[in-house]
């Protein structure tokens, strides 16, 4: 059963070593993420799943101890999912899960065993919800750390340029995340999310499936669109 969830954005720039001189611009987002992850520990879960979007070929399960790196962003920084030793067949974490592993390390996670799940950003809402239900049923007390960004089309300098639909999409996503409104998250349109480059849509819908019948309350801890990308931090408990 799902007992808690933290929702965080997953840009590599969240890692100060990657952001370098621009690091202070995301200090508020980092602080909110720290608070959200801290609430996960307070829920005393039996298992923590880190869920984030993954490119084709990187979908699927990443066992405890899986490692990742930010070398692709010019930074010699390695991370590990939890404190278990790396698995024998260790495939590198996708960027979203590497950011999640970094967040757990930043907060010195020492709670439940950790496992990662790379989600296909194009998965349908029904598929995502089914995955979430499976995670919720995997242990008596389950927590999720859900990584994902909103639209990348909020300004002309955004990665996806300006799209007038982006602000409305992000506003509804932020409202749903802040209210722990699983039905509203499942109603987010995959095609629109794809056009707006909102990679968080699928992981959020995994969360929605896991939260069915869990009766959780939500709080939106952070909402902004630096660099023209929607970033949200929420805590469900």
Specify the structural class. Answer: alpha/beta
The shape is: globular
Q: How many strands, which pairing sense, and closed or not: the largest β-sheet?
A: 7 strands, mixed
CATH architecture: 3-Layer(aba) Sandwich
Q: Give the termini separation.
A: 12 Å
Q: Flag low-confidence runs.
A: none
CATH superfamily: LigB-like
Lateral strand order in the biggest sheet: 3-6-2-7-1-9-8
Counting H and I runs of at least 4 residues, what is the number of helices? 8
Tell me the β content. Answer: 15-25%
Name of the level-1 CATH class: Alpha Beta
Note the run of SSEs as H and E: EHHEEEEHEHEHHHHEE
The tally of domains stands at 1
Tell me roughly what share of residues is in helical segments.
25-40%
Gyration radius, in Å: 16 Å
**How many distinct beta strands?**
9
Mean pLDDT: 95
* CATH fold title: Protocatechuate 4,5-dioxygenase, Chain B
């Amino acid at each position: 059963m799902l007992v808690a969830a933290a929702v965080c954005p997953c840009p590599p720039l969240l890692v100060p070593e990657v952001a370098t001189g621009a690091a202070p611009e995301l200090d508020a987002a980092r602080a909110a993420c720290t608070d959200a992850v801290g609430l996960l520990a307070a829920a005393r879960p039996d298992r923590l799943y880190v869920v984030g979007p993954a490119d084709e070929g990187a979908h699927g399960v990443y066992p405890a101890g899986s490692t990742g790196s930010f070398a692709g962003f010019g930074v010699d920084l390695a991370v590990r999912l939890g404190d278990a030793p790396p698995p024998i067949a260790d495939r590198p974490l996708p960027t979203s899960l590497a950011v999640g592993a970094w967040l757990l390390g930043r907060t010195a996670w020492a709670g439940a065993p950790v496992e990662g799940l790379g989600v296909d950003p194009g998965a349908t809402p029904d598929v995502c919800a089914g995955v979430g239900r499976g995670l919720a049923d995997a242990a008596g007390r389950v927590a999720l750390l859900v990584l994902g960004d909103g639209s990348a089309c909020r300004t002309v300098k955004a990665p996806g340029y300006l799209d007038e639909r982006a602000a409305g999409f992000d506003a509804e996503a932020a409202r749903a995340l802040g209210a722990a409104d699983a039905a509203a998250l499942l109603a987010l349109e995959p095609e629109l999310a794809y056009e707006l480059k909102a990679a968080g849509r699928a992981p959020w819908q995994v969360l929605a499936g896991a939260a069915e019948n869990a009766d959780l309350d939500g709080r939106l801890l952070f909402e902004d669109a630096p660099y023209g990308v929607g970033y949200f931090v929420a805590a469900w408990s």
